[in-house]
């Protein structure tokens, strides 16, 4: 929902060895490999949609590196904008920059299609009845990797029509347009400056919300302000509501849903091997999902903070665990941040 600095571009990581529950046909694997060639091919031993040890080799272009980490194709590909050669003409430099951005967006759009195909492969475990998901049969229990794959793929598919139109109309000027409207872009097509702007805007919004609730000292007053504050801190609603000075509609429901999601994610990370099993890019994204400021911290610092958060969250169970997460989000437990 992962780097010397978390503000830099999230990059593809080469997944080691990968498995899934059922192997695709050789022709489908060949077709997938032909269409998507941006991810490495080294191998791992954990399946996508369960924690069982059943092994079936998947094409590395559409595979997860573990049950905790979604595929690298759910994150933006590398973007290396060329520097201008003093002896080169302005036209040739701009042409090379345009080619670089074209290749970046092309890879990002391909990744969305790759993720859509992979999501279809694991839809059975994600759509299993609740009674089966909660059972001891790990073959039908969705993993964190599969859940994040679904969330990110749905997010990207919902933005694909508008972004495709922007790309068609503005062409090489698309990078300038997306900086003005950063949330219109799929995750896989976000350039580094766009990610940096989104993080800065999110932190400014959190800081403003914290200032607005500082006057609340009574528990009853804090409880009343908490839902709106959590929604703002997690960027769950349009910032126009902040300017109006009122909470977004259904703030309480959105806050409770977000808290429940974080509690579930904390438990999955704990049970799946802990924070040390997360890829660096995913550590940064997990911290963002918990309203951490990731702009000026290195990955190891964020990893330590995330470990403290999950330790505090998973000590309790059920409603108590939700209360702990709620308190951390509204700032009553500052040790985790």
UniProtKB/TrEMBL annotation:
Residues 149-337 form the Letm1 RBD domain. It is a single-pass membrane protein. It comes from the Eukaryota. The keyword Transmembrane applies. The chain crosses the membrane at residues 160-181. GO terms for molecular function: ribosome binding. One of its GO terms (cellular component) is mitochondrial inner membrane. It is found in: Mitochondrion inner membrane. The keyword Acyltransferase does not apply. GO terms for biological process: intracellular monoatomic cation homeostasis. InterPro entries: LETM1-like_RBD, LETM1/MDM38-like. Keywords: Membrane, Mitochondrion, Mitochondrion inner membrane, Transmembrane, Transmembrane helix. Residues 25-48, 61-83 are annotated as: Disordered. This is Letm1 RBD domain-containing protein. It comes from Pestalotiopsis fici (strain W106-1 / CGMCC3.15140). The lineage of its organism: Eukaryota, Fungi, Dikarya, Ascomycota, Pezizomycotina.
């Amino acid at each position: 929902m992962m780097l010397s600095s978390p503000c830099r571009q999230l990059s593809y990581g080469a997944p080691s060895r990968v498995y899934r529950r059922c192997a695709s046909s050789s022709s489908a694997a060949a077709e997938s490999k032909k269409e998507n060639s941006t991810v490495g091919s080294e191998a791992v031993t954990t399946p996508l949609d369960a924690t069982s040890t059943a092994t079936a080799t998947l094409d590395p272009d559409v595979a997860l590196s573990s049950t905790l980490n979604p595929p690298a194709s759910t994150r933006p590909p590398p973007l290396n904008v060329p520097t201008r050669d003093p002896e080169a003409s302005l036209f040739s430099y701009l042409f090379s920059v345009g080619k670089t951005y074209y290749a970046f967006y092309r890879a990002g759009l391909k990744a969305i299609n790759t993720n859509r195909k992979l999501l279809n492969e694991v839809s059975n475990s994600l759509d299993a009845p609740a009674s089966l998901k909660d059972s001891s049969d790990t073959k039908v229990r969705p993993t964190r990797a599969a859940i994040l794959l679904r969330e990110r793929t749905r997010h990207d598919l919902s933005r694909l029509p508008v972004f495709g139109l922007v790309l068609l109309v503005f062409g090489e000027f698309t990078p300038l347009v997306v900086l003005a409207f950063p949330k219109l872009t799929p995750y896989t097509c976000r350039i580094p400056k766009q990610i940096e702007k989104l993080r800065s805007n999110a932190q400014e919004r959190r800081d403003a919300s914290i200032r607005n609730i500082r006057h609340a000292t009574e528990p009853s007053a804090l409880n009343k302000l908490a839902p709106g504050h959590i929604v703002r801190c997690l960027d769950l609603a349009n910032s126009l509501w902040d300017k109006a000075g009122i909470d977004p509609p259904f703030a309480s429901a959105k806050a409770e849903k977000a808290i429940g999601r974080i509690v579930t994610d904390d438990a999955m990370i704990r049970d799946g091997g802990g924070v040390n099993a997360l890829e660096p890019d995913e550590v940064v994204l997990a911290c963002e999902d918990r309203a951490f400021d990731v702009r000026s911290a290195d990955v190891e610092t964020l990893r330590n903070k995330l470990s403290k958060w999950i330790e505090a969250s998973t000590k309790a169970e059920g409603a108590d665990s939700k209360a702990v997460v709620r308190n951390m989000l509204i700032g009553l437990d500052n040790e985790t941040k």
